[in-house]
Task: inverse folding
């Protein structure tokens, strides 16, 4: 009897040993895995040299619906506009920071993706969107097809978005002084119901600055950089008298923040940005 | 006992059996098949050595022709019949094939095709934020060696690619562009009425060359009817998207079109029957009903003109819209009564930019309906106060409005057009 069990056990063991394994090749070529590829042209090479390898910033110019609002009517950019736009951004945003804050500053902190769109994004309320940003990671720039670096107002508009979003990254990395939030306190979610003059009279640099302290802070940075010191002074002096000290106080805090948090001389940065914009 | 043992052995043997060939889903994996499909499509696009003829039917209407040469380096060059320069100068851009919901062909940087889909109306001549409801991202619908049909992913436009011959590669768009130029010469006609004559029939037509739309006016009894269809250009003429079938005629398009600049007419053939489109001082048949209902309007409401008269092809020839603070012209039948005589006004409305207040001035005239269906205005006087310095604008406008020949009344989609009966070369568009 015992023998039977033994023989059975041996057979069982043997059969388990011989049970086969099937080798499956899990390394299949999944469609689209690892991103899309295409034969690189001069534009791709230029972007590689100027954005991808030095700063690890991807610039998407070939239309990708999944980066954008799905139902919107949008146009892709013209190829010949890509380099002029990105060259302008490089000279007016990246380079002034490089010179004032050292070469690693932008590398460490920049948003990692730019998406270019040829047309504006038309909203149902009749307005158009010129730029959007998502969480300090991705910046979408519209109306690239109408880009002309001689149109200073439009260039400034575009830089406004970039400086605004970059400002968010800065204060999310190192917070700005707490007292900034108490310079003015009447922030409101319905900021868009009020005019620019109204916002300025209450000590906000733009309408949107009234949205919340964070946006107020980055709007200040953005406007001070794109308008330059003279332009900013003009804005302050054209504001009602009661608002001027508020704007000046905010200016002071921005300048102090750049010095204390990042060891950057803000006024020098401002001058370099202005020189770059004027040189376009 | 022995039997049980043998049975157990058998079970154990069975357990260790294995079939290595088992496959749940035989054949290639979906990803492999998808990759192969995309590669095949690309090879087919690139492999056509003379490139492709393409006709794009935007969801917004009409159709546009392209010639596209796909290159292996993910780039293409394109010509289009959209305008003279897009037909003459090839433009390069990029494309890619991508597995989206279905295998898709994406024209992913701007080229002529994208003009139709541009949300900026100054580029597309279409609607704000929508363009002409066209596409530049397409899914493959059906593929044969000679033709590929695609459907737009956003708007559902249709794109049909057909393999080109060497001759077509050189001349397809060139020949079409000549026909575009020929047919768009209709915009040089000075008269409001354009008469299309074929065999024994004639129709008034109007053509919107931007939308590629043609409208025929015909009569059922005494009632004027219109038929509108989109068209597109071919190498020989134009093809209607919907054929015009009336009175035993079935016009699917106009072939062999030729423009004669001296006589200002366009000749064509339909099924080998010759015809032509010519300038006409008067309508093929006067729409008496339209004139009567316009004449009988009660005066409760006015019509609006955005500017003054078009004369000899010049819009607002007397520059009514240049009057300071000009807002619109209120064309007001039976505005008031004077000595028992009701009168109409050609009221120029201005708006004070600060107060927003509206002011009206302009000539007043009695209107009458002639037996053949014309409206004739006889000047009675003026209403309101004419501002100083506008005589040069108002004098010829008033003279034209009160011309003794009067006007034909043409019903349009938005209101009526009044067309001078003296020569058919002056008119005004009125909106309700």
Result:
């Amino acid at each position: 009897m015992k023998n039977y069990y033994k023989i059975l056990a041996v057979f069982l063991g043997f059969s388990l040993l011989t049970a086969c394994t099937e080798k499956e090749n899990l390394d299949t070529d999944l469609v689209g895995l690892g991103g899309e590829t295409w034969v690189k042209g001069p534009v791709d090479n230029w972007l590689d040299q100027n954005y991808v390898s030095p700063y690890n910033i991807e610039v998407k110019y070939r239309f990708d619906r999944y980066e954008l609002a799905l139902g919107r009517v949008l146009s892709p950019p013209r190829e010949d506009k890509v380099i002029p736009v990105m060259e302008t951004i490089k000279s007016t945003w990246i380079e002034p920071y490089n010179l004032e804050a050292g070469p690693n500053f932008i590398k460490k902190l920049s948003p990692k993706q730019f998406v270019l769109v040829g047309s504006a994004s038309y909203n149902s309320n009749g307005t158009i969107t010129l730029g959007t940003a998502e969480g300090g990671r991705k910046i979408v720039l519209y109306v690239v097809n109408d880009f002309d670096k001689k149109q200073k107002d439009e260039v400034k508009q575009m830089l406004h978005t970039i400086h605004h979003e970059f400002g968010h990254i800065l204060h999310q990395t190192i917070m700005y002084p707490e007292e900034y939030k108490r310079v003015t306190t009447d922030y409101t979610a319905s900021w868009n119901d009020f005019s620019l003059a109204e916002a300025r009279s209450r000590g906000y640099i733009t309408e949107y600055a009234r949205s919340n302290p964070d946006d107020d802070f980055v709007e200040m940075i953005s406007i001070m950089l794109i308008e330059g010191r003279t332009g900013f002074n003009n804005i302050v002096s054209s504001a009602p008298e009661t608002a001027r000290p508020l704007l000046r106080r905010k200016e002071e805090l921005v300048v102090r923040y750049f010095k204390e948090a990042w060891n950057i001389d803000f006024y020098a940065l401002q001058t370099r940005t202005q020189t770059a914009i004027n040189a376009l | 006992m022995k039997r049980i043992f043998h049975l157990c052995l058998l079970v154990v043997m069975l357990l260790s059996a294995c079939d290595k060939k088992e496959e749940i889903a035989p054949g290639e994996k979906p990803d492999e098949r998808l990759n192969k499909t995309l590669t095949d499509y690309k090879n087919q696009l690139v492999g056509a050595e003379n490139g492709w003829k393409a006709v794009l039917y935007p969801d917004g209407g009409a159709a546009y022709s392209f010639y596209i040469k796909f290159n292996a380096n993910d780039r293409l060059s394109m010509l289009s019949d959209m305008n003279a320069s897009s037909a003459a100068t090839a433009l390069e851009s990029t494309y890619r094939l991508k597995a989206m919901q279905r295998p898709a062909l994406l024209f992913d940087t701007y080229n002529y095709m994208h003009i139709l889909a541009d949300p900026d109306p100054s580029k597309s001549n279409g609607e704000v934020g929508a363009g002409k409801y066209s596409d530049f991202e397409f899914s493959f619908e059906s593929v044969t060696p000679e033709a590929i049909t695609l459907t737009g992913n956003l708007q559902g436009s249709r794109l049909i690619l057909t393999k080109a011959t060497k001759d077509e590669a050189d001349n397809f768009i060139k020949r079409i562009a000549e026909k575009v130029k020929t047919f768009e010469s209709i915009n040089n006609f000075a008269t409001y009425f354009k008469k299309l004559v074929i065999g024994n029939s004639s129709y008034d037509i109007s053509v919107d060359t931007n939308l590629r739309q043609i409208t025929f006016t015909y009569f059922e009894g005494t009632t004027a009817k219109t038929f509108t269809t989109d068209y597109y250009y071919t190498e020989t003429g134009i093809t209607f998207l919907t054929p015009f079938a009336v009175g035993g005629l079935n016009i699917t398009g106009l072939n062999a079109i030729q423009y004669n600049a001296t006589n200002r007419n366009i000749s064509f053939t339909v099924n080998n029957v010759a015809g032509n489109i010519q300038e006409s001082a008067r309508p093929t048949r006067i729409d008496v009903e339209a004139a009567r209902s316009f004449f009988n309007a009660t005066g409760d409401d006015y019509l609006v003109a955005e500017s003054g008269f078009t004369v000899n092809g010049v819009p607002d020839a007397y520059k009514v819209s240049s009057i300071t603070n000009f807002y619109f012209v209120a064309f007001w039948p039976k505005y008031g009564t004077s000595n028992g005589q009701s009168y109409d006004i050609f009221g120029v409305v201005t708006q004070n930019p600060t107060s927003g207040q509206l002011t009206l001035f302009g000539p007043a005239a009695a209107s009458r309906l002639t037996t053949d269906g014309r409206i004739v205005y006889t000047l009675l006087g003026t209403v309101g106060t004419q501002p100083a310095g506008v005589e040069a604008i108002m004098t010829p406008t008033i003279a034209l409005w009160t011309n003794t020949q009067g006007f034909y009344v043409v019903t349009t989609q938005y209101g009526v057009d009044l067309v001078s009966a003296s020569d058919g070369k002056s008119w005004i568009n009125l909106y309700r």
Q: What stands out?
A: Chain A is about 50% helix and 5% strand. The CA atoms of residues 229 and 270 of chain A lie 7 Å apart.
